[in-house]
Give the backbone structure.
Amino acid sequence: MKIAVLGAGSIGTLIAAKLVNSKLADVLVHARGEHAAKLALDGISITGHQELEISADDYEISIAGVMPNAVFDGAADYVLICSKANQVEDLFDIAKRMCHLDTKVMVLSNGLGHVEKCKDAFGAHRTIAATTTHGAWRPSAGVVNWAGIGAINLGELPYGAKLSQIHDFVDLLEKSGLNPNLHNDGMGMIWSKILLNIAINPIAAITGLRNGALLDDGMFETCVEVMLEGAKISRLEGITTLDDATLIDNLRIVLQATSNNQCSMLQDVREGRCTEIQYLNRQVVDRAEKYGVSTPLNQLLSKLVESITSY
């Protein structure tokens, strides 16, 4: 089995390392910048929940704009796009080059709209919905800290490939210790993560707080209100969403489980990078407008994060 991991930042590099470590698949890693150079020269170092050292000789490497790699052209069985949300479409040309007739493509990046773009670019027969709840961050180039053990969620789409077609990949994820979960409702699965992201990420990014601090009464109440605004829009979109009480319980559980984490949007703000707000809260606002519905908290958070990152 050949797996291409494109846009390998923290999560993509973690996934690639675990797949390589299983010795059950050939893996190509596509990354950019100093991180990619370290992956090419020194391999991958995983710290945190598991200590792993992966030799650069054990996987193929492709460096954006510097060192293309044609070894997987027309040969990748699965393509995993793991980049930041605003870089997803930039990787489509590389992904297309690697696809054969039965290749399955998954976008694990945060945000709304990716599966629709994936379907348009690669065809419905290749598209599987995917999200991940693993937590990871990069203390330095070539090094990834596995901060939180989660899962890789795979979902079937009404117009997409069937989960029955990817048993080999699911088995690989299981044997690699990446904890696959299967969902018949891929869009519901995506929205479940979106609702958590919109409630946590912008508030943490604006306040500078770790996830656990958002459990404080006033802060948690605000997170809940943001999430429920989004839940209302998901239902208008025809998504089967959990009831409000269960959503609130799940939010509390996630904040407790990731209490030490600095969310990705907070990391982006601190590093002066572009955030994913356009694919999270701003998407909720834009979709709400189609229904003539106001989402004032999501609107405010979108504007605040956008203003922070514009300077």
User: Anything to note?
Assistant: The longest strand covers residues 99-107. Residues 84 and 109 are 6 Å apart (CA to CA). Residues 186-207 form the longest helix (22 residues). The mean pLDDT is 95.
